Amino acid sequence: MFIFDEKFVSKKEGHYYSCPWIEHGLVFFEYKLAMCCNCGHSNSAQPLVRNNFTGQKIEWERIFKVKEMYRRFHKKGKIHKGCISCPYLQEAKWDESKYIDNLYISHWTQCNSKCIYCYATQKPDEFEVHQMYHVFPFIKDMFEKGILRPGGQIAFGGGEPTLLDEFEDIVTYLLDNFFWGIRVHSSGIKYSPALARAIEEIRGYVVVSVDSGSPEVFEKVKRVPAYDKVRETIRKYALKTNFIGRYLVGAKYIIIPGINDTIEEIEKWLKANYDAGIYTTVIDIEESWYLTNRGKVPKYIIDLIKYVEKRSKQLNTNFELYERVQNLLNDVNMKK
Ligand code: SF4
Ligand code: SF4
């Protein structure tokens, strides 16, 4: 579980290798508590806080003891194997106080989309179960005890967050208690007034993976007839933004070879975003295809990514890349 490597033994006084999630993070999954979501950071096991968790009482001291154990090992250069190649792992002088300011709520229990790339939709029996437990009581408990503090990020993902029956209450509670950094990954099929408020108050960020510029391609990817609904939702979120918060609504495009990989479709997506006042565009490549084809990604895919980058500059919009796409471009640039 922990692997020793000399290069992780810090030579600087008071420093050691860690990350904001080991220090002050917690993730609620449907069956476990984890240190981080570990989504794409590493190919190894996830750093766990507690397995078999389905909403039982949490002794916060025990959570901090687990974090302390990680610190002890990391200070000796023994790094959790899930963290070895993670870009968040840094050598620093960390604040070892006992508090949480990074939360991720990732239930994976329900969604209103059926994306062809989603592993959860391939196991509908496991995915479409009822919400396993409520996170809101834990959030309140942490906040009332002074354990949960603003300053980090409060992220929702894994399934469709806006379908959780506690979503509006959690976001409203966080806003009422002066939290910011609320990040939501949403299908965009359901509009959330609480999320709209978070965006309007420049304390929330939403990214919706539209993956298409037309209803036809949308339905191939999402397998639900909801293109117009999604477009309407993100337009309404974008209407909440002002000049300072104009990057807080993002439209994502996961390139899926053979399905949505044409300049024409991408151009329609870019134009629809621009017309809706969406100033952040996010590009990714379908993960399972990428893992199978890394190292031999065809040139036309690289050209598509570069096309979006070029058009984003022309449209003066914010261009974001997911980590694997950035790695891919780095590989291409190194070979030049
Ligand atoms: S995998 Fe990365 S983000 Fe997660 S705990 Fe390890 S270093 Fe932190
Ligand atoms: S929106 Fe997310 S959780 Fe829902 S099917 Fe698509 S990838 Fe899966």
Short description:
By secondary structure, the protein is an alpha/beta fold.
Helix/strand-derived category reads alpha/beta
Ligand catalogue: iron/sulfur cluster
Percent helix: 25-40%
Question: What is the distance, rounded to the nearest whole angstrom, between the alpha carbons of the first and last residues?
Answer: 38 Å
- Into how many domains do the coordinates divide? 1
Strand content: 15-25%
Mean pLDDT: 92
Order of helices and strands: EEHEEEHEEEHHEHEHEHHEHEHHEH
Strand order of the largest sheet: 5-4-3-8-9-10-11-12-13-14
| Number of E strands | 14
Tell me about the largest β-sheet.
10 strands, mixed
- Helices, by number, come to 12
Low-confidence stretches: none
The gyration radius over C-alpha positions equals 20 Å
* Dominant shape: globular
List keywords for this structure.
336 residues; alpha/beta; ten-stranded mixed beta sheet; 14 strands; 37% helix; globular; binds iron/sulfur cluster
